[in-house]
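Interim report to the steering committee. The following record documents the input for GH16 domain-containing protein (352 residues).
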Amino acid sequence: MPRHSAPQQPTWLRPRLVVAFVVATAGLVTAVWLPTRNDSADAAERNRSTDRLSRSLPAFADDFSGRRGSTVDPGKWALRTDRAGDGVQFSQSVRNARLDGRGNLVIVLRGEDRDAFSTARLYTRGTLRGTTGHVEARIKAPAGEGLRPTFELVSATRTNTGALDVLGEPVTDDGFHTYAVDWKPGEVTFSVDGRQVRQETLRNVDTGQPFRLALSLTVGDNRRDADLPARMVVDSVSFSGADASAEPPATTPPTSEAPTTPPTTPPATEPTDAPTSEPPTSEPTTAPTTTPPPATSAPAPPAPAAAEWAPFTDYVAGQLVTFKKVEYQVLETHTSLPGWEPTALPALFKKI
């Protein structure tokens, strides 16, 4: 058959056209699917952020353990970087907020050029919540005029509302002091080193609102009298509370311990019913002593040394443990689990 009369192959079966069609289809599918996937990922991230806000933490603790000169734990704290006005600039630099390597956070207020100041203000990254709760921090506040150290509870949803300053009037004797606030519906109590300093009544206040803890050192009205650089040292911060939707915390039932003193002992000498019929002898007789001498209590054994905290261990209230070379006292009897370190559960452990 002549070549010109051979049947022509259909155009849609040519290999080059088939390959081009497949490539074009794959590109179209990718162009349609990829933006949708990104939108889904963005929505998921927004939902996770919203969930973190709605699921406020009922407990928080930080003992600021870390390498000297390093910054705070970014999973627990965020640092502001804006300007507060009056020449005060908040900074993330370790010149203004750093760990000292001995379990302390140091916030430094510095004087800068043109009557400006640099310092740090830290917020807890996660939100906290408790209709009743206890917040405390062990702080060494700087002495001197023109300085304003603060440890505050700040609303996580109402940024224009005022803050509750736990530090109040700090003790400036160059020593650490424990500042705390306890609240319940209708009442808030402030204390320093376990001693109540003031009590306030709350009316029409929802104590279950989410909040954050904040630490800062700034200047006051008479800032020109401030001796700079000034330092505020924080040893530890903790919070434990009860969420509005949670059940009331279970109270530890009273322990039925055996009485420390045994029941009444039988009389030392047994009474004789019948009188003796023998006449008394002329020679004096020395009767043996029937009353036992008082028992001397054995010296109490020395208290066992605090053992290192470990998971899957039974701990009793009052027991001492160590974690990262720091000693803690067990507050409630429990069996430890991974993630229940003393620094993570201030409701179960108290730093000594």
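Confidence is low (pLDDT under 50) at residues 29-54, 244-289. The committee is asked to note this result when reviewing the revised timeline.
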